[in-house]
């Protein structure tokens, strides 16, 4: 009020000045932080210019708009035929320090995060009001709806600054003792309460009174009635009554249901791109049905989505209603507009990754029509690279009147390389140390390289791998690896197994199936078994082999992966079929034909729970007779690694009647899991596994499976690898059911 009155009076004084005189000079007083030159620049009137009242008024407004002045006055006098202007300013003090006091029930940093006022800001009253409202809203959200915030300002006169303290009086939480409804007849009270966030206080739950949540609940109640045809329904707080000395409230909600409406005639208009038959497949409403707003909206979305799939992103479907008594005639007015084309694709945030690495994953290009599912597919493929935090943000900008757009893809790089060293533990290999270097986005060009070394009492492994995802600029991927593995005698394995060799793998997208790739690989391996356990019989087949053996094999596979996340899928499936041939025309003295099939399926359940189902089956045979397959290549199930069957020890499950060291030639396993994320790096799970192995496919009995059930946890530890623990109960163990722990800590390769 002071500032407005000062400007008004100043303008009255100026009105008496000669209108046609020049400005002699402009003098500024009262400024503390802002220089006279800066103030005059904003004011915009200089000596020698013609004096005009409107220009003075505009200059004062510009100064006010800087929000740095608490008061402004302009005065004048005439000297020697010129107008002398005097600008008298009063600046807001600057904020020297901001303090938050009285936060005992909430974390101080959470409250401080709601404070917009910062050191160095001009202390404008509007900022104080904004901060008080934000702090009170935070407390109300946490159930402290009666929290008070006082602003205390300590003036530091010599510095023209303030120390600002927000002093919070938190008060106590107010509980909802009773939540009652008045006027509801069409819907039961219990049904209404289910959709509300506000709850009555019980011994097992809080039931805090939160005004904002209650307001949102009123909206939800109206929406609920709208789904049943009560489109005029309204809900409001009828009254609240304090009880127990103000510690709790009885809340009464008044519901005005109105009358129910049914659907009358259903028509549509404006469609040219989509035929009437296509519209009819989405317009699933029937005359006489309750006029449910959510179903009407669902039809609008379905039709609009169909237009989006064809590039008509500016289309809309308007629901035009005509009421006849209790019947509502509905016309879907379709405005198609022009299809949108992609003018340019702009990528930002890729501070390390080259644009070409991202662009080669896109399914859309400049000049293409904007097809929604292709754009969504492009985003999924960029996420699958694993180079970026979260899902890239997608936006559009219109470039012309025809509706064409630029795609704006915003990414956030994450660390893709790591150096790790430490110790690991697993049920299979006991304690071991590991050292590893890995980079999945080498020099930002999408190449992968890794070196892993693991050493311990029972395990000495070294592995080098290089991945070229677009070999020679083509869609072919190349993977090359060299390794030397030594696994000493461990649980249920009666010898030291040493393998060294190399492999080369080529992959290429399958041209006619989405999400699908073809793979071919060659492996050359030197296999030597030694240091046989005394439990392994002297007449055992493997003791009489002239070690080492040479294994030369090729593997052909086809795989499909439509999951939504490369590390923690919640939707989609992955499947693979493979055939591996060793020996024969490839030479070497390890001979077999191995066929494997694997299928995983993921589906969201409710809240954050995800269901995962997996089925794996395998068969191995010789070229001329089954006896060609050496024992160390056969299937033995158990544990939580290859051929996993939790609830059973590693290599424990072999065909019925076989010695424990002789595996089967056919196997199958089934896994059912329910997963729940405690955080981005910690997952819990419950599982049910079933599986078995047999000496041939003809002996396989899908009703004779070894079963295991239990719980597990997975923890991702940066630079250390993964911590995994499963505790499973094996129902069908030899000697009776028992529990079996499965540990993994460190790296797995």
What does this structure look like?
The protein is an alpha+beta fold and 749 residues long. It is 16% helix and 42% strand. Strand 21 (496-509) and strand 22 (516-530) form a beta hairpin. The longest helix is centred in the N-terminal third of the chain and has 17 residues, at 125-141. 23% of the residues are buried.
Protein traits:
749 residues, alpha+beta, 16-stranded antiparallel barrel, three-stranded mixed β-sheet, 16% helix, disordered N terminus
User: What percentage of amino acids are in beta strands?
Assistant: 35-45%
Alpha-beta classification = alpha+beta
Count the DSSP helices: 11
Radius of gyration: 37 Å
Helix content: 10-25%
Main β-sheet: number of strands, strand sense, barrel status?
16 strands, antiparallel, barrel
Q: Please state the average pLDDT score.
A: 89
In whole angstroms, the N-to-C terminal distance is 74 Å
Low-confidence stretches: 1-18
Annotation, overall tally of beta strands: 31
Strand ordering within the main sheet: 16-17-18-19-20-21-22-23-24-25-26-27-28-29-30-31
| Overall geometry | extended
């Amino acid at each position: 009020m002071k500032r407005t009155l000062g400007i008004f009076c100043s303008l009255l004084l100026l009105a008496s000045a000669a209108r046609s005189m020049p400005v002699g000079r402009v003098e500024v007083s009262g400024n503390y932080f802002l220089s006279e030159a800066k103030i005059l620049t904003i004011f915009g009137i200089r000596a020698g210019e013609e004096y005009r009242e409107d220009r003075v008024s505009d200059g004062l407004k510009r100064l006010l708009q800087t929000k740095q002045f608490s008061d402004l006055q302009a005065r004048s006098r005439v000297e020697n035929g010129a107008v002398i202007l005097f600008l008298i300013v009063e600046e807001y003090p600057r904020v020297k320090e901001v303090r938050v006091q009285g936060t005992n029930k909430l974390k101080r940093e959470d409250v401080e995060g709601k404070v917009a006022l910062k050191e160095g800001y001009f202390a404008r009253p509007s900022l104080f009001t904004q901060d008080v409202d934000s702090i009170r809203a935070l407390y109300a959200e946490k159930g402290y709806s009666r929290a008070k915030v006082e602003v205390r300002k300590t003036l530091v006169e010599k510095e023209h600054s303030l120390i600002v303290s927000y002093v919070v009086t938190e008060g106590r939480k107010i509980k909802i003792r009773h939540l009652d409804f008045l006027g509801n007849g069409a819907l039961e009270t219990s049904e209404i309460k289910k959709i509300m966030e506000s709850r009555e206080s019980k011994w097992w739950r809080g039931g805090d009174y939160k005004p904002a949540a209650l307001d949102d609940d009123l909206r939800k109640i109206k929406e609920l009635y709208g789904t049943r045809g009560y489109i005029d329904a309204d809900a409001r707080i009828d009254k609240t009554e304090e009880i127990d000395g103000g510690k709790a409230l009885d809340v009464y909600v008044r519901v005005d249901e109105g009358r129910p409406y049914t659907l009358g005639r259903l028509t549509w208009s404006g469609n040219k791109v989509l035929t009437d038959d296509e519209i009819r497949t989405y317009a699933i409403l029937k005359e006489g049905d309750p006029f449910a707003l959510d179903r009407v909206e669902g039809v609008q979305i379905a039709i609009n989505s169909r237009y989006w799939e064809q590039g008509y992103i500016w289309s809309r479907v308007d629901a035009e209603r005509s009421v006849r008594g209790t019947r509502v005639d509905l016309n879907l007015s379709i405005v198609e507009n022009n299809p949108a084309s992609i003018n340019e694709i702009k990528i930002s945030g890729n501070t390390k990754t080259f644009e070409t690495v991202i662009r080669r994953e896109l399914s859309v290009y400049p000049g293409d029509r904007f097809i929604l599912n292709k754009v969504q597919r492009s985003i999924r493929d960029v996420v699958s690279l694993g180079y970026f935090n979260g899902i890239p943000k997608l936006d559009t900008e219109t470039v012309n009147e025809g509706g064409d757009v630029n795609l704006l893809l915003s990414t956030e790089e994450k660390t893709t390389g790591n150096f790790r060293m430490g110790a690991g533990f697993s049920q299979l290999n006991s304690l071991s140390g590991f050292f590893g270097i890995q980079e999945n986005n080498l020099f930002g060009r999408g190449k992968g390289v890794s070196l892993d070394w693991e050493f311990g009492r029972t395990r000495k492994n070294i592995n080098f791998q290089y991945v070229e995802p677009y070999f020679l600029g083509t869609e072919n991927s190349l993977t090359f690896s060299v390794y030397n593995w030594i696994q000493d005698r461990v649980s249920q394995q009666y010898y030291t197994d040493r393998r060294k060799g190399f492999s080369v793998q080529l992959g290429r997208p399958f041209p006619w199936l989405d999400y699908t790739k073809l793979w071919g690989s060659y492996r050359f391996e030197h296999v030597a078994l030694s240091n046989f356990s005394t439990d392994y019989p002297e007449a055992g087949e493997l003791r009489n082999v002239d070690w080492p053996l040479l294994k030369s094999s090729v593997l052909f596979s086809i795989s499909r992966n439509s999951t939504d996340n490369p590390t923690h899928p919640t939707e989609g499936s992955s499947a693979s079929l493979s055939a591996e041939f060793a020996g024969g025309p490839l030479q070497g003295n390890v001979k077999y034909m191995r066929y494997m099939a694997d299928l995983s399926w993921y589906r969201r359940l409710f809240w954050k729970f995800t269901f995962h189902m997996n089925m794996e089956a395998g068969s191995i045979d010789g070229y001329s007779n089954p006896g060609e397959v050496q024992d160390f290549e056969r299937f033995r199930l158990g544990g939580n690694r290859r051929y996993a069957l939790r609830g059973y020890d590693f290599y424990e499950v072999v065909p019925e009647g076989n010695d424990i060291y002789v595996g089967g030639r056919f196997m199958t396993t089934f896994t059912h899991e329910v997963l729940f994320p405690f955080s981005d790096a910690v997952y819990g799970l419950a599982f049910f596994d079933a599986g078995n192995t047999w000496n041939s496919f003809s002996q396989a009995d899908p009703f004779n499976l070894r079963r295991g059930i239990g719980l597990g946890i997975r923890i991702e530890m940066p630079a250390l690898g993964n911590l995994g623990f499963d505790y499973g109960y094996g129902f069908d163990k030899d000697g009776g059911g028992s529990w079996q722990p499965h540990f993994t800590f460190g790296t797995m390769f």
